[in-house]
Every structure is written in C-alpha cells, then in structure tokens.
Design a protein that fits this description.
34% helix; 7-stranded mixed beta sheet; two-stranded antiparallel sheet; alpha/beta
Length: 182
C-alpha cells in the first residue's frame, strides 16, 4: 500500500493541501498529515482551521513512498525549521520521492536538493532556487520531474501535479481510471 507524508503549517495554500489530499485519498493512497509546529492545529492561507494527524518529530521516511510539501505564504515562516530540514534530507538520502509545489521548492533549494536539478515553482521563488543551483524548467511547463524530485508552479496546477504523483506511485493505467472516475 502506498503512503504519502504531507507537511502542514500555518499559512499553507488551501488548494495545494486539500486538493492533493483528496486526490491521494481517491487513489487509495494512505495519507498522514504532519504539522511542523508544536501544535496539531493548522490555519491555512484562507483562515480555515484543521487538525493534523501527527507532529513532524514523529515522521520516519522509511514508512512512506513520498513526501508532499505544499506551498503558500507560510513557507517563509518554516524556512528555518531545522526539524523540517532534517526530515526533508532524510527522504532525499533514502531516495524517496519528494514533491514540492509553489513556494515549497525553496525548502529543497535551501537544503541543496535542487542543485543541478530542473524545477518549477511560483515565480516569486525562482531566483532564490536558482541561486542555490536549481535549474528553472521554464514558463511553458507546469511540472518538472528529475531523479526523485517533482515540482510544480502554484495552486492552479495542483490537480495536474497531484495526478502526476498518482501516476508515479500507481502507474499510468491507474491514473487514467481515476481520471475517468472509476
């Protein structure tokens, strides 16, 4: 059974979090939501409040196939979270898939994970990611995939991004069936 660890934080972009989780659930993927703060409460960009399943201190990369990092304005607030850095690097060292959308590729760039890697991100973070060695994939693309890193632009590409992740985990035939609403 496939499992995804989703990172949650105050200021997370609603669409990038909830749409992705919904698609993963519909695909039959087990999803655990990890909060980066000491609380299990998250307040999204649109001020929606919800409870996360677990705290990031309990995140073990060996239990998951993929780490999902949504974006949003709250990414700036978690850029100095050392525990998040540790967990992201653990997934990377263990050759696990890592998916980051919108501003979240900054977290990968900060940790050297985007060095010499093609990426897509929100326009506001392209320069930062390039300054850390990332190679911007271009404005005409919505998704970049290289090695075990999957990145995407912003909330408008969340559906396509999430379905790409489903395809990577479960195959193109399953993705097609899911798109048809099996």
């Amino acid at each position: 059974m496939n499992k995804i660890a989703v990172i949650s934080f105050d200021g997370v972009e609603d669409t990038e979090l909830f749409t992705a989780i919904d698609i993963f659930f519909r695909a039959g993927i087990i999803v655990d939501i990890y909060n980066v703060s000491d609380s299990n409460h998250t307040v999204t960009r649109s001020k929606l409040k919800f409870l996360s399943d677990k705290n990031i201190s309990n995140l073990n990369s060996n239990e998951y196939d993929l780490l999902y990092l949504p974006g949003g304005p709250g990414v700036n607030e978690i850029m100095n979270n050392k525990l998040l850095d540790e967990k992201v690097n653990d997934f990377f060292r263990n050759n696990k898939l890592i998916a980051a959308i919108c501003a979240a590729p900054m977290i990968l760039a900060k940790n050297g994970i985007l060095k010499d890697t093609s990426f897509i991100s929100h326009p506001s973070v392209i320069e930062y990611c390039e300054s850390k060695g990332g190679r911007y994939f271009g404005d005409s693309k919505d998704i970049a995939f290289q090695s075990n890193i999957i990145t995407s632009r912003n909330f408008t590409t969340t559906y396509k991004f999430s379905m790409f992740i489903v395809e990577k985990l479960l195959g193109s035939d399953f993705k097609t069936k899911l798109e048809e609403g099996f």
